[in-house]
Automatic annotation (TrEMBL), chains A, B, C, D:
Species lineage: Bacteria, Pseudomonadati, Spirochaetota, Spirochaetia, Spirochaetales
Keyword Hydrolase: no
Protein source organism: Treponema peruense
Active-site residue list: 211 (proton acceptor)
Domain Phosphofructokinase residues, every copy: 81-387
Protein name per Swiss-Prot or TrEMBL: ATP-dependent 6-phosphofructokinase
Record: residues binding substrate: 209-211, 254-256, 310, 362-365
Subcellular location: Cytoplasm
E.C. designation(s): 2.7.1.11
Amino acid sequence: MSTMKYDFTVENLGECKVKSPIELSLDHGTFRAAYVKDSSFVRRQVNVFKDNDDAEDAKANNLEKAGPREYIYFNPAHVTAGICTCGGLCPGLNDVIRAVVRCLWNRYGVRRIRGIQFGYKGFFTEQGYETIDLNPDNVDTIHKIGGSFLGTSRGGGDRVNDIVDSIERLGINMMFIIGGDGTQRGALDIANEIDKRGLKISVVGIPKTVDNDLEFIDRSFGFETAVQKATQAVNSIHMEAHSQINGIGLVKLMGRESGFIATATALASHETNFCLIPEVPFDMDGPNGLLAHLEQRLIKRHHAVIVVAEGAGQELLTSTNQTDASGNKKLADIGIYLRDRITEYFASKKIHINLKYIDPGYEVRAAVTTANDSIYCERLGNNAVHAAMAGKTKIVIGLVHDKYVHIPISMATLKRNIVDPESSLWRDCLDATLQPVYMVNNINTVTDKLRKNADEAEAKALARLEKVTQMLKK
Amino acid sequence: MSTMKYDFTVENLGECKVKSPIELSLDHGTFRAAYVKDSSFVRRQVNVFKDNDDAEDAKANNLEKAGPREYIYFNPAHVTAGICTCGGLCPGLNDVIRAVVRCLWNRYGVRRIRGIQFGYKGFFTEQGYETIDLNPDNVDTIHKIGGSFLGTSRGGGDRVNDIVDSIERLGINMMFIIGGDGTQRGALDIANEIDKRGLKISVVGIPKTVDNDLEFIDRSFGFETAVQKATQAVNSIHMEAHSQINGIGLVKLMGRESGFIATATALASHETNFCLIPEVPFDMDGPNGLLAHLEQRLIKRHHAVIVVAEGAGQELLTSTNQTDASGNKKLADIGIYLRDRITEYFASKKIHINLKYIDPGYEVRAAVTTANDSIYCERLGNNAVHAAMAGKTKIVIGLVHDKYVHIPISMATLKRNIVDPESSLWRDCLDATLQPVYMVNNINTVTDKLRKNADEAEAKALARLEKVTQMLKK
Amino acid sequence: MSTMKYDFTVENLGECKVKSPIELSLDHGTFRAAYVKDSSFVRRQVNVFKDNDDAEDAKANNLEKAGPREYIYFNPAHVTAGICTCGGLCPGLNDVIRAVVRCLWNRYGVRRIRGIQFGYKGFFTEQGYETIDLNPDNVDTIHKIGGSFLGTSRGGGDRVNDIVDSIERLGINMMFIIGGDGTQRGALDIANEIDKRGLKISVVGIPKTVDNDLEFIDRSFGFETAVQKATQAVNSIHMEAHSQINGIGLVKLMGRESGFIATATALASHETNFCLIPEVPFDMDGPNGLLAHLEQRLIKRHHAVIVVAEGAGQELLTSTNQTDASGNKKLADIGIYLRDRITEYFASKKIHINLKYIDPGYEVRAAVTTANDSIYCERLGNNAVHAAMAGKTKIVIGLVHDKYVHIPISMATLKRNIVDPESSLWRDCLDATLQPVYMVNNINTVTDKLRKNADEAEAKALARLEKVTQMLKK
Amino acid sequence: MSTMKYDFTVENLGECKVKSPIELSLDHGTFRAAYVKDSSFVRRQVNVFKDNDDAEDAKANNLEKAGPREYIYFNPAHVTAGICTCGGLCPGLNDVIRAVVRCLWNRYGVRRIRGIQFGYKGFFTEQGYETIDLNPDNVDTIHKIGGSFLGTSRGGGDRVNDIVDSIERLGINMMFIIGGDGTQRGALDIANEIDKRGLKISVVGIPKTVDNDLEFIDRSFGFETAVQKATQAVNSIHMEAHSQINGIGLVKLMGRESGFIATATALASHETNFCLIPEVPFDMDGPNGLLAHLEQRLIKRHHAVIVVAEGAGQELLTSTNQTDASGNKKLADIGIYLRDRITEYFASKKIHINLKYIDPGYEVRAAVTTANDSIYCERLGNNAVHAAMAGKTKIVIGLVHDKYVHIPISMATLKRNIVDPESSLWRDCLDATLQPVYMVNNINTVTDKLRKNADEAEAKALARLEKVTQMLKK
C-alpha cells in the first residue's frame, strides 16, 4: 500500500510555564479528570493481520492526545483570541463557535474574543467588516439556528500577508480557523508567515468538510446531520417515485471527490436503488450500463431511486476547467446530465416515465445539528481551546478512534479521504441498494483507471509531503 | 362585484329508503350525534355591512350540510366502491384513502372496495393495471407515509367512455375521485355519462389542490402541511443568505395561478423580504422595480430572502404555450428567470452577491400530513362516504366556515380562488415582508391589467355557469 | 337552546381623529387593501335550517371586524405600549409578542414598548421586576424558541388597583394582555378601574387557551401545535403498546373542562382506541364500563391506546376542593387513577398486561408553533395593534369564520366552549376510535346529569351576563 | 488498572466448506470488496503512553473482524433462521430485524426465516404465540416505525431447556437474539445447552442497550436516537423553566447503572445546569450539596435545568430490594425523590419556585432511528448474518474503532461500561453544565466509596471470567 512516512509531531510555540486555571487532577485513580500529558498518544493503525504484525509501524503513527494541560503557554489575562469560519456552510459552525467562546471565557477566563466576519475576507481592510466581540451571552443560543453566526465566504487564504497584518493589528495571539482543506492550507501558510515574523501566535484549525473527506479522522462535524437531512430528502423523492407510473427519483447530494454523504444516505434511506459516487466509475450505455440496469429495475418494480454525489461520473461530462473562489474545481453538473440522458433514453424507447430531480444541498448545509453532532462540535471546540492555550500551533483537532487528538495541518491536508470501493462500508451499501458492483462494460478499463487515479493521488500526496518536510527543515 | 347566481342544489340518485346501519339520534338534545337532515345548510356569506343587508342574497347561497343520513340510497351489502387519486402528489392522499375505506367498512359494513391504480389511467384496459382490494388492514398505516398508496397520474379524464365502461365492468356503484380542478371536471363528465346510460352510480369528489385555489372552501387538504414544509425550506435558505456576504435566498414554491402557499409561507417564515405571487404583478427594472428594491435591501441589511410562486411574473417571460397531461398551461420558469436576472444585475453593478436558488416542491408534495391536516383528511373521507351512501352525486366535499358541506362539482370548478390583493391576508403578508404594495413603475397600467384579468376570469366563469345550467336543463 | 342575548357592541376610548400613518386604500376595487370600517361585521350564526330562517337572529349576533382604521385614536408619537403574558405556557406566545412589537414599530412608528415580566406579577413593585424595552431587533428570532420571552406566572389579576397604579406609573396608554379566561376577566376589571379613574388607556386582550375552550372563536392559538405534539406522543406510546404482550398505552393530555385536545389528538393519531373527555362521562365497572371494553379490545387486538383529558371522569374521583394561583379548580389526577384501576383490574383477573402511562403536557406547552399557528399568532398580534390604535378597549381579538373580529371581553368570558357530544367532531372521533357512544351502564342517569350540567353552565353564564349588563348600564 | 486477561477467541460450529454465494474478491487491490479472513483482527487498545509500550498487551486484546467469509458453514438451502427481540424497547429494533432478513434472503438466498414473537416468551408453547414468516416484503417499511415488529417482553431466558426444545421443534439452525445484558447471558446458556445436545445451531447476538453500557463497543444501537429525543425533551423543559419565576426543569432519563444518556443529553442540550449520574455520588444537603448549589443558581439566573439518570443517587433512597422480569434491580425513584426534596427545601425557605418534572422515557424508547443509527443497525444486522452463516456462535456483533467485530458473549457480558468520572467525556460535560466536580461535603468518603464500588465491580467481573473460563475448559 502507501509508502508514505507520516510525521505527526506537533509544533509548539514554546515552553509551557503558566499553571492552568482549570483545576484538574494530577494523576489517574482519583475519580476526577486529570490533565492530559504531551506523552499521551492514540494509535492510528488498529487493523491487525495475524501474520503481519504492525506494532512497529503503529508506533510511528501515534497521534498526540488533545485536552487540557497542567501548564499552558499563554497567560489567559493576555490572550486575545480570534475566530473565523471559512468556505461553504456546514451544520455545526455555530456549535463550534459557541464552544470555543465558552471554554475560553468560562474555563480560562479569557475576556477578549474577536469574531472575524465572513471568513478570510473579514481580515481585509478594504472590505470594512468590523469584528464582533464574542462572549457567552451573545453566543448562548446560536446553536439553535443553522448557518454561521460570523458569516462565511470562500477564498482569500492566499493573501497571507494581509491576513497576518490584520491579526497583528487586532492584537490576536490565538487564532481559531474553522474551514476545509483549502482553508487549512491557508492557515498553515498564515502560521508559517507568523513564524517568519517571529510572532507568538497560535493557529489552531477545526476541520470542516461536510463531505467527510478528511484523512485520518473518524468523521467530520456536520456530516451526520447532513446525512440525516439528505435521508429525509431521499425518502420524499421515494414517495414521489413510488406513487407514479415508472417514477424515477434522482437526488444529487454533496460530495465533490468523496461519496460519503451519498453512500451513507443510500444506507440510511433503505430506499435507494442506485448510489453513484466519484470513487466508482460507471457507464451510461451498453448492456451493463446504468440505463440498462435502470430499465430492468423499472420492469421489475415500476419505480427507482438514484442517489448521485455531485462529483460522480465526471468522466462522462465535458470538463468545465473552472475553479470557484475556494480553488475547488468547478464540476460539470452530473445531476442535469443524468436527468437529460435518462429522459432521452426512455423517450427513445417509448417508455413513459416520471422523473423528478432534486438537489437538496442548501437545506442540508444550513441544518441545525443532530444531538450527536452537536456534542462533537462542543468537544472539538473545547479541545481546540485547550490546544491553543498550551501553545500548540499549526494543528487541527481530530477525532481518532473516538478520542480527540492533535493532527499537524501539514499531515491533515496531504490527501483526501475517499470511499474505498473495497471497504465494508461500500460493500454494505451495495447490499442495501442491490446494484451491481460495477455498472461498466469493460471492467479492466475501469480497474486500470482506478489504479491510475490512486497512483496519481498517492504521488500528489507524496509531493506535498516532500514540500512540507522541506519547509519543516528550514 | 360578481353578478353570478350560483346554484348549490345537490343532485341525488334517487329516494333514500334504506335505514342507515349507523345508529345515531333522531333529534338534537339527546347528548349524542343526530342524523343530518337534507334541510340543514351552511350560509356561505358571512360579511355584513350595516347599510347593506345581505340576508336575501345569503339565503340563495346556502350550502347543504354533509354527514350521515337516517335513510340512505344504497344497501351496503350491494355496494362496490371504487377509489382513485389523480394529478400531482399532495400531502394527505393516503389519509383520505384510509378514511374512506374505514368508514365504508366499519360504519356501513361495505366489503367490496376497489383501489384504482395510477389515477384515471388505471381504468384503461390497455395499461393493464389491476385494482387493489382495500380493507382496514391494508390501509392501516398508510397515513404514516407520504405519496399515494394507489399511485397517481395526470390526465386521462377526457376518455369518459372508456372510464365508464371500466366502472361498469368492475361493478362499481360508488366512485370516490380525489383530484384537482381538471380531475373534478372529468368526474362531472363521467357522472353525466353515467346518467346518460341510466346507471345508478354515485360520483363523489374530494377536491385536492395543494395550491389551495378552490373557490368556496376554507382551505384544501394538504395545504397546511405544504406551508409547514415550505417554511422549513425558507428558514434554511435564510440561514444560508444570512451567513454570506450579500446573501440572497430565492425559493420557488408551488402556486400556478394562486399564490396562497407563497403568501402563507412568507407569513409563517417571518424571514421573507419579497413575496411574489401571480395575483400581484411586478416590474424587474426601473426605480420601483424588484431589482432596485432588492439592492436597497442589501445595502441596508446585507441579505435578502425572496419567495416566488411558480405562476408569478408570467408576463415577464416568453410564454411556452404548452400544456401538461392534466391540461394545465406549462409555465415558463420564473425561478430560473429571477436567478439569472438578479445575477446579471448585480454583476453589471460590480456588486458581489451570493445567490442560492431552491425549488423544494417535491419534498413539499410528498410530505406526511401535520396533525391538523390529517384530521381534515379523515373527516373529508368520512363525509364523502356518508354522501355517497345517501346517493348524492356530482358533488365534492367542502369545508365552509369549519362545517362540512356538499358542493356541486359544477359550482366548485367554476373559477379558481386567488389571493385577493385587497384582502387582510395579503395586507398582513406585506406587513410581514415590509415590501412595497406594488413594485411597479406605473401603477395605472397594473390596475388596468388586474381589472382586465378579473373581468376575463369573471366572463369565463359566467360562460362555464351558462354551459352547466344548459346541461342541467337537459 | 340558549336564551342568552349577547351584546357584541365594542367600546371605544373616544372619537378617532388622527389620520393613520398606514397608507391604505379608501375603497374597494382598487387592488390594494382598504381601511376597515366600523360598519363591517361578521355574521356569527351560519347554520341554516330551511324551515327556520335565522336572519333576524343573525343580525343581532354580528361581530365587529378587526383591522386597520383610517382614523385612529392615539397619536403614535404619544403611545407607550405595554405587553404581558399571563398563566401557563402555550405555543405561540413569542409569535404574538413579536407581531405586536413589529406592527407597533414598523406600521405605526411607536417607539416605546414595554414588556412586563412574569405576567401580572410584573406589575407589583414588591417583586422588583423591571420592564424590558422591546423593539424589532430584540424580538427578531424569539418565535424560533418556545416559552414566553417575557416570562409568565399565574394569578395576580385580582390586585386591580396595584396593576392600574403600575400602568399609570409606567405611562402606558395601550395595554396588550395575553392570557386565558381568568386573565381576561382580570383585564376587564383593570379596564373598568381605568374607566373609573378617567384614564384613556386601551386594554386589548389576545385570548390564550391551549385547551381551545373559548366560546365564539374558531380555535385558539397554540391549539394546533399542541395537537401536533400530542399526536407524536400518542404515536410513541402506540408503538410501545403494540410491541408488548397486552400493551396498554395511557396518555393524559391537557383539557380541564373541554376535551378538544384529546379529541383532536385521537383523530389525528389514528391509533387511539378510547378517548375520554370531561364532556362525556363514563363508568369504570360494569358490563358497559371502560374496563370491560378495554378487556374486550385486548382479547381481540392484544394492545390498546387510551387518551384521556385531565378533566375527564372527575366524578369518579374524590374531589380536591383546591384551586391554583389562576383560580382554576385543582383537579384530582385521572391519569394516575386510571393507571391504578386498570392495573388492579387485570391483576385480579390474572391477565398479564404492560401498561405505560405518560403525561407529555410540558413538552406540548413549550413547543415551537407549527407554520399555521405561527401565521395565526402574527395576524392576531397585528389586529390587536390595529384595535388598540383605534382606541378599542375591553376586547379580545378573535377569529370567526376565518375572519378577525373584536369580541368584548365581557362576552368572550361568559362561558367555556366544550366538545358537544352531538357534534360531528365527536361523531368523527367515535368513528376513529370505534369506542361505544357511551361507556355507562345506565344511560338515563348520564343524560340527566349532562342536562343538569348544561343547565347549570347556562345559568352561570346568564348570571355573568346579567352582572356585565348591569355594569355597562352604570 | 484491571488485571483481567480477556479471551476474545471466537467459537465456531465447525469447518467452513461451503463456497459463499456472495461473489467477492479474494484479495485486496482489486477495487472491490474482498472476503474477510479469520486472521483479520482489530486492536482494542489504542491508548499509547510513550514510556509504556503496550504492544505486547495489545496483541492479546485483538478482536476478530466481522464480515462475509469465502467459505461458510451452512448451506443456505438448509438454513432455517430465527429472530427474536427481548427486553425493553430501544430505537432500531426494526432496522436490525429488517437488515437480518434482507441479508439472509438477498445475499445468501435463505428462504425460511421465522420471527419469534414477544421475546423469549414466544418460545413457550403454553403462551401459544405463532412465529411470523419473514421476508423482504413484509419487513420492507418496518424501519419507518418505532417499537418491535416482532413484539418483545422481559425475562424468560432462564427456561433454557424449553427454549432449546422449541428451537429444535422449529428446525432452526441459526438463531439471532437481539437483547441486552441479561438476554445475552441467556443466549449463552442456550448456546451451551445446544452444545450439550450436540446440535449444530449458531447463536448470534446483537447487543441492545439503550443505556450504552456495554463494555468494549464504541456505542450501542439506538443510543444516538435516544439522546436526540432526550435532548428535545430537555429543550422543552428548559423553555418552561426559563419562562417561569424561579423555574426548575427536572428531567429523568434512562440509565440504571451508567449515565451515558444523561451525560450526552446534558452536552447536546447545552442548557443543562446539573447532570446527575449513577457514577458520580452527590449529597442533597450541606454547603456543597445539590440543594445549596441549586439555590445559588436560582439567585444568579432565576431558572435551572436538572437532568438525572434513573440510577443516580440510589444511596440517598431507601432500597426497594425488588427485581423486574429481566432480573434488573428495581430502582427506587430518584426523580420523585428530587422533586419532593427540592419542593420542600424551597418551601421551607419561603422561596417561590416553579418545578416541572418529566420522564420522557417511553417516547425515547419508541422513537424512529436517526439516519446514523439506522445505518449502524443495518450493518450490525448484515454482519450478524455473515457471522452466523460462517458458523460463528456464542458471539455478539460489536463496533470497535468504527470496525465491526465478533465479541464472545462471555466477554461482552463480564461487566458494564460506565461513565468514567476521569474521562474527557465527563470533563466536557462538567464544562457544559458548569456544575461542581463533586457536590459532596466530604470528598474522601466519596472517593473511598467509588474505589470500593470499582473494586467490587472488578471482583464480580473476575468471578464471572473465572466461571466462564471453567465452562470453556469443560
